[in-house]
Task: structure prediction
Amino acid sequence: MRYLFLFIFLNLFLTPQVASAEGTKPELQQLFESMETLTGVPWEYLAAFDQYESNIHKEKQKNRLTHIQVPSYLWAGVSNPSPDDASLVSIHYFGGMGLDGDGDGRASASSDRDVLYTLSRYLISQGPTVSHIRERIWHYYHQPMAVDVITHLAKIYEKFNTIQLEGNAFPIPKGYIYTYRSTWGDRRGWGGLRIHEGTDIFAHYGTPVKSTCYGYVELKGWNRYGGWRLGIRDVNNRYHYFGHLNGFEKEIKKGDIVRPGQVIGYVGSSGYGPPGTSGKFPPHLHYGIYKFNGKKTYSYDPYPLLKQWERANRKNN
Result:
């Protein structure tokens, strides 16, 4: 009777609901929101956790909606001789975290509802606040970068109230004169021998610079290499770097949520020295793109993406 009641209760809350007049929400988002109703964990944190995991596990397990893969030693217990154990009794005995989220009497690490229910209960195991959730994320990954990335992704989802945030923009508006070529990996000597981690887009002083993505402003300020610069984390865990700016759009601040095409600053020639240094090279936007894979942050060539966004910019405007 206990499992029958749990099954009815869970299915009452976990049945996908039709969204508002704006259209039907994605099935995955409905699942996140149903877990929020059941456990109290904000759905956007589950969405952010899932998106973060997608950058670690490139492929979802078969018949799964989510990318979240709880390590077997956490799910079934460190000493459990059966890493695929789904028995609630033995998982509890070996100190595993796996729980039954769909009312079938088992705790399967390959079940989206079991995994999300288990993760939700884990995230609020020390308390219901965002600070408690951030603490549990730290204990799960033991990686401070993971805490910030997941938190920032959650804020983006909360702002737009959807996980469907596709689309990018070329950083220079149509109608302005600019030129660029692939310069990623070129040698740079100022401040020590290094490679160029981006693409330089040459344009006139004061040319508007647009956000290339939906994202969270993680960084704003001065860097002796990049001058006045902004750093924006997008929903795909890519970090977009905008350097050598002449200035920022006055409303932009650290912690803001931006969208593709939103003006964030202006082309300049700042950098290569202490705050205020400018004019050591022709005005241009240094645009770089980085990704965090769970262990380290690395840069990669943004040129192909820029060409793709440039073509789309010309087609849509």
About this structure: Residues 1-22 have pLDDT under 50 and may be disordered.
